[in-house]
Amino acid sequence: MIQRPTDALVRVVASCVCGSDLWPYRGVRPTAEPRRIGHEFVGVVEEVGAGVRTLRPGQFVVAPFMVSDGTCPHCRNGVHTSCERSSGWGGPDAEGLFTDAGQGEYVRVPLADGTLVAMPDHPDADLLPSVLTLTDVMGTGHHAALSAGVGPGSTVAVVGDGAVGLCAVIAARRLGAERVIAMSRHASRQALAREFGATDIVAERGDEGAAAVRDLLGGVGPDQVLECVGTKESMQQALDSARPGGRVGFVGVPAGGPELPVSQMFATNVGVCGGVAPVRAHLEELAADVWSGAIVPGKVFDLVLPLDQVAEAYAAMDERRAIKSMLLP
Amino acid sequence: MIQRPTDALVRVVASCVCGSDLWPYRGVRPTAEPRRIGHEFVGVVEEVGAGVRTLRPGQFVVAPFMVSDGTCPHCRNGVHTSCERSSGWGGPDAEGLFTDAGQGEYVRVPLADGTLVAMPDHPDADLLPSVLTLTDVMGTGHHAALSAGVGPGSTVAVVGDGAVGLCAVIAARRLGAERVIAMSRHASRQALAREFGATDIVAERGDEGAAAVRDLLGGVGPDQVLECVGTKESMQQALDSARPGGRVGFVGVPAGGPELPVSQMFATNVGVCGGVAPVRAHLEELAADVWSGAIVPGKVFDLVLPLDQVAEAYAAMDERRAIKSMLLP
């Protein structure tokens, strides 16, 4: 139901489970009482408030994983995740008004003009998964590559073979990387990484992984390392892998730390940039490539379930039986 | 004395005391036995080894603060501080051969073709101080600005009003920054910062300092913050000052830590790049501006002493009576 003139009501056509949704699922982040969850969804505008200017009922829209107004200084700087009026899905906003979450049937979208991006048409069943990745994982992989400074001719290593890491492979190639080394120990994910443009696969981790990456590149580490996990080990592996003067682009939610080793960074001139991805900033650009078929990130979905089987969607990802689950009404 | 065919023998015309030289001076870093010190010097080539191709006796040369061969992959990447054959001044190299230090009369310079940069002429007394800054502080300030991504129109804050911080002000303006806020509590350093192009001065530190910087910029932090100190407090101030999506360029030698707060960086998308400055990489470019008079970084020297009064040169810097001391033979 519309509650503010800047709201839109969206009927959810597809949503998905994010790796970060697994934290409360696993109890790592305690949940005090039952609440709505999910921050990745696409759908059709059913109704708009009186103040909405750019959207109309019937349009197919993508909702990035955070609400943003698109007009504050931080949005204008392309950092929509730091929007002065930002809020998340499934919680109260700054004024205490509850925002719906994406794993449901209808969602009230605040600041609809800023938050939602209308697609050129309603995607068909083949295109739908790729459009759905624009809500989070494709934009997040892109943010990792962009933060690390990937460009034409770059040599890149990607740490993490989840949906974000796999999308980071796409993003790195899309930005012109010449070599993209995917670090993965799972055959099916290795295959998908190759399909997405990875030129090499390294199964080793830690020191051995860093050494294997250097060996592939003639003894010099990659220009950029995309850290798409968020653990102490994955960040250290990323820092150890990059060549002197290289850069780590990180988008893995830091799982309780650790802090970064500043003395190592000082000695090696390896920088660390990135963070929570402002996927809204690049959504139009990435959408154009999805609609043209230039990129097909939707292949990360290897499990599709109706919304009433959402429990299995979580379980399959938790047990690493699925890379990513898509939920249909 | 020439010991390898790639050596040059340089008669020191001027050298200086670096902030980092104060560490062993203060006993923060213990020194086991008397040793030569100093890594910032300029002079005249007296003799070259048989394998030296680009230098000849009589040339006036600048020695960056580290030895590098100029040909290894890291040098070609512009990260001469990670040269595969790098060594410092005043210690043994990889093969155990002792390298002279700069605060002396003559220095044997290893890998002379890679390490030394010949100036177009012998600088006169007015130009000498600025040429001397090319050995370290001007290049280090430049590295901070470059690592942070300063460019045309940037808003910049500089943390640290030592010689490096003051040179970082020059560097930021030189790269096109529109606003440069120097953080300093010392009247003479504030004045020099203004002379170097700082548009604003903030005397507050910590949270108050960060707030004062934001206030000057309409409530949004600077695009880049140049961290030229190296303490826990200065790095935290830098991270707290930058706008979301901004970047800290750090060149202050980390004084025993701390580690960087990765969760804060994740939430704000403030990146951290920089490290020990490969001043060799940009020496020709900066030298051109010194010789043309476009920049006059030599003003950071506010104390000139003969080499035999080196003890006072250290004491004056240690007690913050001098920004930076220049030593003449």
UniProtKB/TrEMBL annotation, chains A, B:
Its cofactor is Zn(2+). InterPro entries: ADH-like_C, ADH-like_N, ADH_Zn_CS, GroES-like_sf, NAD(P)-bd_dom_sf. Residues 5-120 form the Alcohol dehydrogenase-like N-terminal domain. Pfam families: ADH_N, ADH_zinc_N. One of its GO terms (molecular function) is zinc ion binding. Keywords: Metal-binding, Oxidoreductase, Zinc. Belongs to the zinc-containing alcohol dehydrogenase family. This is IMP dehydrogenase. It comes from Cellulomonas hominis. The lineage of its organism: Bacteria, Bacillati, Actinomycetota, Actinomycetes, Micrococcales.
